[in-house]
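ARCHIVE CARD
Drawer: 12
Card no.: 0347
Subject: one protein chain, sequence and derived structure
Cross-reference: see card 0346
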Amino acid sequence: MPDIQMYTTAVCPYCIAAKNLFQSKGLEWEEIRVDTDPQRLHEMLERSHGRRTVPQIFINGHHVGGFDDLAAAEHSGQLAKWIGEKA
């Protein structure tokens, strides 16, 4: 199972869309809420090189980006490679 970390907030439709995509693939993820823990927001900013939008998604330590980046990776087949999915 891939290591998926996702920085989110409570009210974020793109966060929900990312969760739905992972759920549809039977994947689990660690949700890190940046709206309730300012230290985690600082961590997200460092890891994402200053990107302030949520979600910020990491798969096996690789910074994927936000939901648009995740959706593009799904469409191109790159997401399957990152999560070790067989073609």
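Annotation on reverse: Residues 13-24 form the longest helix (12 residues). The two ends are 16 Å apart (CA to CA).
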